[in-house]
Write a structure and sequence with these properties.
The chain is of the alpha+beta class and about 325 residues long. The protein folds into two domains: about 150 residues, HIT-like (HIT family, subunit A), CATH 3.30.428; about 160 residues, HIT-like (HIT family, subunit A). Helices cover about 25% and strands about 20% of the residues. It has six helices and 14 strands. The longest helix is centred in the C-terminal third of the chain and has 21 residues.
Length: about 325
């Protein structure tokens, strides 16, 4: 089992405004054939925060603090300056969600009940962490495959809760707000309307969701799953029919992706913690007016990640990838 990290700190890049974590050193993982996420090896992980159990009392999915966390729940925010530079403590939460008991399952072999359980525990952890007013953003993401840097094959995801909003989300929020101020419409709703109208990059469409290869795709076979009706927060499920539709669409999409790519990242883009985060001035539009949640699936084919000073270059047009994904009809759909 890995040793705990040494505590680092957040530092703000004065040119981009982006916050980075520095000084967090992880002990190297020793060679072991024991998976810490498999049943019977729970002693290799911290105690569970949340478990979903079956009728016999066995856990089916579980969430617990990361053994090597990027952020420290007990840390102080401790905002301070070093000259004109800004820095602060690595306050935050870092949890692991083990999505299934089976070590070898991937989303292409999940059934509807498996995926519904996954959505349930994602939702619960976001809601719970947003109750902590120290955290401005809660992000769920999954890396699958060696290319993404995932060292453990057992199906699992990460949850980050931080006192800052990640740069990518900050850009989405700012652009969405500017679009709303200009047109009094949600930017992502306009994307949905145009994609439906053109039908050139649509992979699949249901009553409640649209799956597209985005117009400016960063990676080959990148797909977004977007609610057709405006909604700012992934975790704000109020209609069982919408939830069931999302589970089915998500499974269908991942079965298509896994037929073409063995490594991918998935990021859930939900709204910030509006109890403590505000971009607009008083009386202006609210986050719920202009932000629209969605899920981004980013297939990987090589180990080199794009540097921030480089353009994304993609060898295939999103219109072509959408057509290919349409033909990859998964077998045994729920």
């Amino acid at each position: 089992m890995c040793m705990l990290n040494f505590v680092g700190e957040f530092r703000k890049d004065p040119l981009t405004g982006n916050w980075v974590v520095v000084g967090v050193k992880k002990a190297e993982m020793g060679e072991t054939e024991v998976c810490p996420f498999c049943p019977g090896n729970e002693y290799l992980t911290p105690h569970s925060i949340r478990e979903i159990r079956d009728g016999q009392g066995q856990w089916l999915a579980r969430s617990f603090p990361a053994a090597n966390p990027v952020f420290q729940i007990e840390a102080s925010e401790n905002k301070r300056a070093e000259g004109f530079y800004d820095k602060m403590g690595t306050l935050g939460a870092h949890e692991i969600i083990v999505e299934d008991r089976s070590h070898t399952k991937t989303f292409s072999t999940f059934d509807f009940v498996d995926a519904a359980r996954m959505v349930e525990i994602y939702t619960e952890r976001i809601i719970d962490l947003k109750r902590d007013k120290r955290f401005k953003y809660v992000q769920v993401f999954k890396n699958h495959g060696e290319i993404t840097g995932s060292r453990i094959f057992h199906p699992h995801s990460h949850v980050f809760a931080t006192p800052i909003v990640p740069q990518q989300l900050s850009l989405e929020l700012a652009n969405s707000r500017n679009h709303y101020l200009q047109k009094e419409r949600c930017l992502t709703c306009d994307v949905v309307s145009q994609e439906i109208r053109q039908d050139r990059r649509v992979v699949t469409s249901t009553e409640h969701f649209l799956v597209i290869c985005p117009f400016a795709s960063r990676l080959s076979f990148e797909v977004w799953i977007i609610p057709r009706r405006h909604n700012a927060s992934f975790e704000s499920w109020t209609d069982e029919g919408v939830t069931r539709d999302f589970v089915a669409v998500f499974l269908d999409t991942m079965k298509r992706i896994e037929r073409l790519r063995s490594s991918y990242s998935i990021v859930f883009h939900t709204s910030p913690n509006t109890a403590v985060w505000h971009l607009a001035e008083p009386g202006g539009p609210q986050v719920s007016d202009y932000f629209h949640w969605h899920v981004e699936v980013l297939p990987r084919t090589y180990s080199k990640y794009k540097r921030e000073d480089e353009f994304y270059t993609v060898p295939i047009m999103p219109e072509e990838t959408a057509a290919i994904l349409k033909t990859e009809k998964p077998k045994g759909n729920a």
